[in-house]
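User: I'll paste a sequence; please echo it back and then give the predicted structure.

Assistant: Echoing your sequence first, then the prediction.
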Amino acid sequence: MNEPRPQPFYRDGLRFSCTRCSLCCRFDSGFVWLSRADLSVLAAHFGVSVEETVARYCRTVDIGGFRQLSLREQENKDCVFWLDGACSVYASRPLQCRTYPFWAHQLTDRETWNETARTCPGIDLGAQRGQREIEEMVENRRVEPPLNADSLER
């Protein structure tokens, strides 16, 4: 007999609204992993080919034995798309950016979520995101995995 699966702490939803504070896209080195769909959206945004998008805005990162594709950073560690005090591709930003802070590892328990809230002023603001919507964001990241840089060269 299967035990019922425990309900996640966010079963009643979580409130979040991006304040565009820039804390998740500036000041620190990090990685914005890109999926094939992300590249297509960015290429369309700029009206250039996927290859040109990769050449202009991406870098290859060797991590865990894999070569992953990530957005470049500016010299000061800001995202390559952070310009004039705002995200210059906000409507076309990558899935990783669109789904923040609803990432699987940040939804493991209330304590982890609260820790994320210490650095994200949008948590507990704005619209209530229901359990289904939250789980769809997590699932979208699973089905649109980061692109291995080697797959671009084939």
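The mean pLDDT is 90. Residues 14-153 form one domain.
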